[in-house]
Design brief:
two-stranded antiparallel sheet, 12 helices, globular
Length: about 300
């Protein structure tokens, strides 16, 4: 007769196989897809907050200008009322990071970040809305949640097994954050797949249009990325995203099919002068950002 100790690996394997059933699948209100739901809203928020503490210093910390931070938050929050389901109730934060690295990213629980390097190359408020809306889309589509859940299952710290063994939410955060952040900040948040990036493009265009921005702004962001990718720059986000040229074509196809009412319609603005006054001019007056060695 086998001992209880010998049965434990088998029990863990069984729990691993039934973990999805223990947690269950739900329909995501943003995408309409059925997906595995392994993280509660509280888990998402806790993971985002802890990941924020580890990632933000690697990007030089927040830009020390209250007006600039308020502007980024203002634009981001204009889109939050239009997200689906209960996502609007998340503790959304929109932060401008003091880094010349060209990037934008989001963490679970509504933490969205835009680097100074990217903001300085945009030309309108609609373009910034396109970037922030795209990152909001990553949150509402729960792309991060899917990656974390997959990695937890793959590495053996299975959500179903952990709950059955009496693990707490704190234990989940302790394991989930390294999966989220990775080594030196190079975790999955910079490595979404092509389909996930395209899906976030579509969601971002939906949110920005409802907020009164012209979705052409997002296509123009992709043109900026496409042009800049031809030279030797620190375009961190380009190493993991679909070719911007393809995203330009796709964005304009979406506009023609889903948002034809916005074409040449002054009701959907770009707000270039506003962006020049409230973002670009103040950025030029700031001292250069500190050179931060990511992961160091």
């Amino acid at each position: 007769m086998r001992t209880m100790h010998a049965r434990l690996p088998l029990l863990t394997l069984v729990l691993a196989l039934v973990a999805p059933a223990l947690v269950g699948c739900v329909t995501n209100p943003a995408t309409g897809r059925s997906q595995l739901n392994t993280l509660s809203r509280e888990d998402e928020i806790a993971l985002g907050e802890q990941g924020q503490q580890e990632l933000v210093p690697q990007y030089g910390g927040p830009v020390q200008d209250a007006a600039l931070q308020a502007y980024v938050r203002e634009v981001g929050m204009k889109m939050v009322p239009y997200v689906e389901g209960d996502y609007a109730s998340l503790p959304w934060e929109f932060t401008l990071l003091d880094s010349e690295v060209i990037n934008a990213f989001a963490l679970p629980g509504g933490k969205v970040f835009l680097t100074r390097g990217l903001a300085s190359r945009l030309k309108s408020e609609a373009e910034m809305a396109g970037v922030l809306g795209h990152e909001i889309g990553h949150v509402t589509a729960e792309h991060a949640d899917k990656r974390i859940s997959s990695q937890l299952i793959f590495t053996g710290l299975l959500v179903g097994a952990s709950i059955a063994a009496g693990y707490s939410d704190d234990d989940l955060v302790k394991v989930g954050v390294p999966v989220l952040v990775g080594v030196g900040g190079q975790g999955f948040l910079l490595k979404f797949g092509r389909d996930e990036e395209y899906e976030s493009d579509s969601l971002g265009m939906r949110y920005m249009t409802k907020a009164g921005y012209n979705p052409e702004g997002q296509a123009r962001v992709m043109e900026i990325l496409a042009e800049a990718s031809k030279g030797p720059r620190e375009w961190e986000m380009l190493s993991t995203h679909p070719y911007p040229e393809n995203r330009v074509r796709r964005a304009r196809d979406i506009i023609q099919k889903q948002f034809p009412q916005t074409v040449d319609n002054p009701q959907y603005g770009f707000f270039q002068q506003e962006y020049e006054r409230r973002m670009l001019e103040p950025l030029r007056r700031l001292p250069p950002p500190k050179q931060i060695q990511q992961g160091g």
